[in-house]
Amino acid sequence: MSKLILIDGSSYLYRAFHALPPLSNAQGEPTGALFGVVNMLRATLKAKPEYLAFVSDAPGPTFRDELYDKYKAQRPPMPDDLRAQVDPMLAIVGALGFPILRVSGVEADDVIGTLAEQAHAQGIEVVISTGDKDLAQLVRPGVSLVNTMTNTTMDSAGVMEKFGVRPDQIIDYLTLVGDTVDNVPGVPKCGPKTAAKWLAEYGSLDGVIANADKVGGKIGESLRDALPQLPLSRQLVTIKLDVPLEQTVTDLTLRDKHVEQLRELFTRYEFKAALKDLEANDAPVGAHPVRDQTPAEHAAIPAPDRAQGALLHQGFDLSAPGSYELVTTQAQLDDWLQRLSNAELIAFDTETTSIDSMMADIVGLSLSVEPGKACYIPLTHDYPGVPAQLARDHVLAALKPIFEDPNKAKLGQHAKYDINILSHYGIALQGLKHDSMLESYVWNATATRHDMDSLARKYLGYETVKYEEVAGKGAKQISFSQVDLDTACRYAAEDADITLRLHYALWPLLQTEPTLRSVYENIEIPLVPVLAGMEQRGVLIDVNILRLQSQQLGKRMLELQQQAWKAAGHDFNLDSPKQLQAVLFDELGLPAKLKTPTGQPSTNEEALEAIADDHPLPRLILDYRGLAKLRSTYTEKLAEIVNPRTGRVHTSYHQGAVATGRVSSSDPNLQNIPVRTEEGRRIRQAFIAPEGWVVMAADYSQIELRIMAHLSGDEGLMRAFREGGDVHRATAAEVFGLKPEEVSTNQRRAAKAINFGLMYGMSAFGLARQLGVDRGEASDYMARYFARYPGVHAFMEATREQAHRDGYVETIFGRRLYLENLKARNQALRAGAERAAVNAPMQGSAADIIKRAMISVAAWLKERDDAHMLMQVHDELVFEVRKDAVEEVRAAVVARMSGAAELRVPLLVEAGVGANWDEAH
DNA sequence: GTGGGCCCGTAC
DNA sequence: GACGTACGGGCCCACG
């Protein structure tokens, strides 16, 4: 398909002007916005579209000013520094060979709309490059938006996701919301959410107007008051599609560029990279458009997305509506059992009374073996007049042999949840072959959330029935068991159906990338039952210890509160940063040395430490905060969340939450229990083992640093690990040119800070702050470090390079992390993406390794009843072990963890045992 | 009441 | 602007 790229020049000029620092050339002419636009254009040229145009506003009034004299009346005039860049911009754009369109009497949007309409009618794909949300009204299949500032694209699904309305509703949406900048009156008090809600309810603006008297409350009055002006607003926000133009779409090809003019312009405005490109490649670009992308350009597209057009599986359109069967008779059940026994792959899903799998009871079950067809078997729906359902235990008994057959392949969406549910009914699911959530996660962890609604939208272009639509939300939410059977069937059977469709969309993708497929098949899928087992088991908690600690903390907090109030001269809420800020900086007049990201004077630990010598209050607050955190987040929360049935806490592990491949934990988060301070560590004393058992904790020593040694192949760093000993001390000895025994505490501390900082992409500035030395000294440390460990430096450079070349970086096992902001104009965003790129291979490889270890250890534990794996804390596994088995288990765990990867340095594992988690370290 | 942004702090 | 990845509590405001 041919492609037309339409560049919204006005939008880019404004955005580049505000986003970029106010650069200027040697003559003092402003160049910042120009620079941004030129770089964007060069990137556009690299995509080599057949047709392209640069569309800009022409000076003078437009038809909208005639319609409405206040239109854009509140807009400040264009800043002089920006105005000065308009003509040079047009000169460069023209010299690059872009067709430029400026049409009087209309805005750039209208020209873009008209061209998009024409191109679309001719079957030409249209990409509109803009930062302006109003253009979303032009989106439809074959017409999409791209924002090169943020590197995001928006198709129909993207519009739905962002605005909550279809592209064809955008005009009505903008009309309702209005635009204060352009002075377009909307409905006062109606924001994006309300507009989307009304449009969902009444379909269109006309629908909303017709039903205006049905809207209650203040906002209803507001709507009725605004009715007379809405038609005008609609006219103002509607982009024209029929502007008379001299050119047609096929005229809009790239002209030969004017090398001489460009050389002059680039030199004058000091665009060195552009100039270099120009000299390197003197031949006219684009005279013969090339349609094929180079491999590097192809790979640079961050998220492979095949959701465009119909996606077929064996002739079935994966975005078509499905047909679903409510199973309430034995004959129907028998029929489905027959289908299951013939099926190659069974998609299943459970419906329950709670999202907490430990608390949930099963309500029904859905199955699908063929896309578009699924059933729902209600089991325990319970409301007045509910029709007869098959008996729960009877159905589960009939399904048990299938669920427990390891040779019958099963598929789920977030199957860990359903495995946990089934386990409550004595079904130990075997043969989990696929999980659509994990397929999506491995394919591209950051392209989307991995819940079914998001996946269906992205990969199938299909809108699912939402849980809230069938069960309500908030206080009005009802249990799924009270949902009527037909509605439940529509929702639940769809879940199984869509799971299967997602698999047929995603699995072919994974098969094209053997390393991703391997991560999925050999790591993520086998990990599912392991995590399910850990959640089910839970970890035993001594609630009395926690209660006692809560009391003690509370008492000390009260004392500190009294002292703080005295120091402040009056009562205030110590938990409120806002009130604290007023007391410290306004009333007491202490210096506000740090600011929060939003510009407020910060009251964080660093800020308080900085003024702790000037007044007693900061220290009191610091102490109070430490205790408050421990009490609210840990001692009270943990005691609260202990399951009364088991006496244990059953966390949830999330396999699709972390971009680098780590698992996360929540409800409660067991991965941030304090350990660094004595005070905090006491909380770990409440993590205990049953009578006759002990807690065993096994952790990898310096795993990420070892991975850095492995990946970089740096001789010095590898030697440090091979020799054993203290790696930070060894580093300090290298950096400061000493023998290890001569290294001072401070030198070791500096070396440790560098070792860790490097893995996070820290700069000299950051290191200086961390160490409390000046920036020059920090730079000096880093220079010496890189001189001693040149392989590390080369590795980091190579990682950044790979990220820029491919758009992603990889772990040792081939897991990929795509980086979204590497090409961002915004320097901070880009730098952040580069740091993430450097960190991801190490963090991600460590995550892969411990996942492999967990699978291996779980397989070994499977046949035993004297030890259970309970927790994973990124580089640590925690077990409960029967006392008589401690040595055997310790040896096996250490061996399996150490053997989880073959690195160029040893993978050291340390294991400790104790009566509780604190003692096990 | 609830949802969400902000600030802050815990872990690896 | 400056150190990567998470989760979560309390405050506070907008919204219903």
CATH class of the domain at 3-160 and 240-280: Alpha Beta
Which stretches are poorly predicted, pLDDT < 50 over at least 5 residues? 282-309
Q: Say how many strands there are.
A: 24
Q: Considering the protein shown, what is the CATH homologous superfamily of the domain at 3-160 and 240-280?
A: 5'-nuclease
- Label the overall shape: globular
Kindly provide the radius of gyration, computed on alpha-carbon positions and rounded to a whole number of angstroms: 31 Å
CATH architecture of the domain at 3-160 and 240-280: 3-Layer(aba) Sandwich
Helix content: 40-55%
Number of helices: 36
Q: What fold name stands as the CATH topology of the domain at 3-160 and 240-280?
A: Rossmann fold
What share of residues are in beta strands? 5-15%
Q: Biggest β-sheet: count, sense, barrel?
A: 6 strands, mixed
Strand order of the largest sheet: 3-2-1-4-5-6
- What's the pLDDT, averaged over the residues? 87
Oligomer: single chain
Q: Which secondary-structure class do the elements indicate?
A: alpha/beta
Description:
- Keywords: DNA damage, DNA repair, DNA replication, DNA-binding, DNA-directed DNA polymerase, Exonuclease, Hydrolase, Nuclease, Nucleotidyltransferase, Transferase.
- Single-chain monomer with multiple functions.
- Residues 680-885 form the DNA-directed DNA polymerase family A palm domain.
- It catalyses: DNA(n) + a 2'-deoxyribonucleoside 5'-triphosphate = DNA(n+1) + diphosphate.
- The protein has 921 residues and is an alpha/beta fold.
- It is 49% helix and 12% strand.
- Among the domains are: 3-160 and 240-280, Rossmann fold, CATH 3.40.50; 323-512, 2-Layer Sandwich (Nucleotidyltransferase, domain 5), CATH 3.30.420.10; 543-680, Taq DNA Polymerase, Chain T, domain 4; 715-788, no CATH class.
- Strands 3-2-1-4-5-6 form a six-stranded mixed beta sheet. It has a six-stranded mixed beta sheet with strand order 9-12-11-10-13-14, with helices on both faces.
- Helix 2 (32-46) runs parallel beside helix 4 (80-96), helix 12 runs antiparallel to helix 13 and helix 17 (415-424) runs parallel beside helix 22 (514-537).
- The radius of gyration is 31 Å and the shape is globular.
